[in-house]
């Protein structure tokens, strides 16, 4: 026994020491205060401290440790019996065959595996055996690997600001061409008039905000919420009506020696107006937004300045055929620079916003309940909780970078100029001869660049309505958010409609009971109308409840359950990892004892190999789950785009010439919703599918822990419960409407009858008093 214990003390440091693998496993280090390690202590006791370099207790301090002590002792006895059997049969085989341990056993590996098996199964600390502690150590360093992977994802978000490339909506070439058109207009009119009648005014008008940060560069002021609209350039008339009249008179007196002053109205050669998206001030990113918008204004101004020399060349060529041809590369070079600077500003802004958000995560958010722990603080175990924060970063950055440029062209005042067509023809000639970049990145003549013809055929009414709803559903960068918006819209509309139908039914039934209570000629005449109205409104209410039984479960799924799917599947994945770890710790003594069986060659016998594949799965599962979570977020975006690409053409072909209406619209939306829900579940199913299946590539078994089936059961319960709630609410509302109206007007009717009786008795008494005796 002393020999075995000595071997255990020798083997254990080799298995568990951070020092041996310090240079190669630093990415697997885990902090002592990591949440996963903290939760492992609840299950396995302070023996878990071995993961972080501590020492385990000499006696069990957990119920599983106490039970494991007995299990390990039993397995030690069992292993000893197997060892005795092996050596007894080996001794007999040696005597019979003349070979150590006989021909059946490997004389080198069998003794080594016997020693290893005995040392692995021996109780070591806290009641756990060497093999069990090895399993815990392996799982702990799997936590460290997952934490490092998660931090790498956060670092990437901090550096790029998004999960995927920004969806920049700027048409660089179209924008540049419009600016060039305005420049040609301005210089052309001034050249034809031989007088500066149109000038560029690079001013910025901030609407609805008193901040002068953007309007007056260099003026210091406190940072306010970013502006929404900016006019950064306009090509305006130099004169107004009055000053133009005076200048024209003076020019006439001098025989127009300095040209002809004229007034061409407001912005005769157009303008550039930038519209920035409104950003929530509470996100504490307003400084980053202001910086980005300042850069964008400057980038547009630089484009305008870069195209000015080209506009002058085009105008000069129009009035003088001997002038050099305009530089065919000038336009393309300006567009390239414009694109480069714009994308650079977008990337810098996205990185700045993401850094602000992620730093806030790291420090927690004490202003919001339950968010005092940041994303980096708790480690991999809370990854699923940050799905919406990731999407919020995407939404913020995508929204911020969606700058709409309203490009106004020359007005009729400029176009009606006698020489305007000459300059526009010169611009058209340049456009045909200029060099541009094609889709492959090569520089070609503008006439050589092929493009698909635009299809101007519109869908029918139903397809247009369907497209509008789908666009609303996918209005957010993340389709899960768009689906939630659709769900909330359905719920809100249903609640308003149900309340209106309830009040209408109540009023109609009250009127019906009133006419019944009043009776007589008036009541009898009104009764058919009020009775019909009561029945109609009641049927309407019930029809609405019936529609709600179909729509509300779907809406609840869209608004609440589907958005929670990433978190639900993540929690199921974490639970599966804990289950796998508990199973591995309990099975570790059996696995350790399996090393003693003599079959096979090498350090590990045939019966023990499968355990190492399970241990590898245990080590990699947290990291692979993070890969599945991030990949699921990306996949759901891609598949939603694929669905949008093929759904409308497919439905249009399917409908063909059939008569379409509201039912068709609802059917198409139901199909789209169903497919999108399946996409969401399939995408986020990667959280457990990747850990389950990735080891197949090296011959490992599939560790299916049943997370998907558990989530489907929860989904069924959620939908069934929602349908019952809607049905029960409808029954209750109908009964209360009818009974409430009846009770109310039974009392009112009784009051009317009592009042009529009292009036009749009073009239009788008065008649007797007045009648002659």
UniProtKB/TrEMBL annotation:
InterPro entries in the record: DotA_TraY
Keywords (A to Z) from UniProt: Membrane, Signal, Transmembrane, Transmembrane helix
Signal peptide: 1-22
Superkingdom of origin organism: Bacteria
Transmembrane segments: 69-93, 114-139, 541-562, 569-592, 624-647, 659-680
Name of protein: DotA/TraY family protein
Organism (species): Pleionea litopenaei
């Amino acid at each position: 026994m002393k020999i075995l214990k000595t071997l255990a003390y020798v083997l254990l440091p080799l298995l568990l020491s951070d020092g041996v693998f310090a240079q190669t496993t630093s990415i697997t280090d885990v902090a002592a205060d990591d949440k996963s390690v903290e939760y492992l202590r609840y299950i396995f006791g302070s023996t878990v401290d071995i993961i972080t370099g501590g020492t385990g207790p000499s006696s069990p301090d957990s119920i599983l440790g106490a039970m494991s002590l007995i299990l390990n002792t039993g397995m030690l006895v069992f292993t000893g019996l197997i060892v005795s059997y092996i050596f007894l049969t080996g001794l007999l085989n040696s005597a019979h065959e003349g070979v150590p341990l006989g021909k059946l056993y490997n004389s080198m590996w069998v003794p080594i595996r016997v020693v290893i098996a005995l040392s692995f199964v021996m109780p070591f600390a806290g009641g756990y055996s060497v093999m069990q502690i090895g399993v815990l150590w392996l799982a702990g360093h799997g936590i460290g690997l997952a934490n490092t992977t998660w931090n790498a994802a956060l670092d990437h978000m901090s550096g790029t600001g998004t999960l995927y490339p920004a969806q920049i909506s700027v048409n660089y070439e179209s924008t540049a061409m419009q600016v060039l058109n305005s420049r040609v207009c301005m210089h052309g009119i001034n050249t034809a008039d031989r007088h500066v009648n149109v000038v560029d005014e690079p001013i910025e008008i901030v609407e609805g905000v008193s901040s002068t940060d953007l309007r007056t560069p260099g003026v210091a002021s406190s940072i306010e919420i970013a502006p929404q609209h900016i006019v950064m350039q306009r090509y305006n008339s130099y004169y107004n009506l009055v000053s133009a009249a005076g200048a024209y008179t003076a020019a006439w007196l001098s025989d127009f020696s300095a040209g002809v002053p004229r007034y061409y109205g407001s912005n005769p050669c157009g303008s550039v107006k930038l519209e920035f998206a409104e950003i929530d001030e509470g996100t504490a990113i307003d400084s980053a937004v202001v910086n980005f918008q300042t850069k964008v204004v400057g980038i547009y101004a630089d484009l305008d300045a870069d195209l000015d020399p080209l506009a002058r060349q085009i105008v000069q060529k129009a009035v003088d055929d001997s002038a050099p041809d305009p530089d065919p590369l000038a336009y393309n070079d300006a567009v390239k620079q414009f694109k480069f600077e714009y994308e650079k500003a977008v990337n810098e802004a996205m990185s700045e916003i993401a850094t602000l958000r992620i730093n806030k995560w790291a420090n927690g958010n004490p202003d919001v309940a339950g968010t005092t722990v940041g994303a980096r603080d708790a480690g991999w175990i809370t990854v699923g909780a940050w799905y919406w924060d990731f999407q919020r970063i995407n939404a913020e950055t995508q929204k911020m970078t969606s700058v709409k440029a309203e490009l106004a062209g020359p007005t009729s005042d400029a176009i009606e100029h006698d020489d305007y067509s000459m300059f526009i023809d010169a611009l058209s000639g340049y456009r045909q001869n200029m060099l541009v970049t094609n889709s492959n990145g090569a520089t070609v003549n503008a006439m050589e660049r092929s493009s698909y013809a635009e299809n101007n055929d519109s869908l029918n009414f139903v397809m247009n309505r369907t497209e509008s709803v789908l666009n609303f559903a996918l209005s957010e960068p993340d389709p899960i958010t768009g689906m939630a918006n659709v769900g909330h819209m359905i719920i809100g509309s249903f609640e308003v409609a149900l309340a209106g139908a309830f009040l209408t039914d109540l009023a109609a039934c009250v009127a019906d009971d009133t006419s019944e209570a009043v009776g007589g000629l008036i009541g009898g005449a009104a009764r058919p109308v009020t009775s019909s109205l009561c029945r109609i409104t009641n049927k309407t209410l019930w029809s609405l409840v019936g529609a709600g039984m179909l729509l509300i479960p779907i809406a609840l799924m869209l608004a609440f359950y589907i958005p929670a799917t990433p978190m639900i599947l993540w929690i199921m994945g974490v639970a599966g990892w804990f289950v796998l770890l508990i199973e591995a710790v309990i099975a570790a003594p059996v696995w350790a004892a399996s090393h003693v069986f003599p079959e096979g060659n090498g350090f590990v016998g045939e019966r023990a190999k499968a355990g190492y594949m399970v241990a590898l799965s245990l080590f990699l599962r947290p990291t692979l789950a993070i890969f599945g979570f991030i990949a699921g977020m990306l996949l759901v975006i891609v598949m939603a785009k694929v669905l949008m690409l093929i759904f409308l053409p497919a439905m249009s072909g399917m409908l063909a010439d059939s008569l379409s209406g509201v039912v068709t619209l609802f059917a198409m939306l139901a199909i789209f919703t169903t497919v999108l829900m399946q996409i969401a579940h399939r995408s986020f199913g990667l959280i457990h599918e990747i850990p389950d299946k990735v080891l197949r590539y090296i011959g490992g078994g599939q560790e299916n822990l049943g997370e998907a089936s558990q989530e489907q059961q929860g989904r069924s319960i959620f939908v069934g419960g929602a349908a019952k709630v809607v049905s029960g609410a409808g029954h209750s509302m109908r009964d209360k409407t009818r009974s409430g109206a009846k009770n109310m007007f039974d009392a009112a009717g009784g009051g009317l009858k009592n009042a009529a009786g009292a009036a009749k008795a009073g009239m009788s008494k008065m008649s007797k008093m007045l009648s002659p005796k």
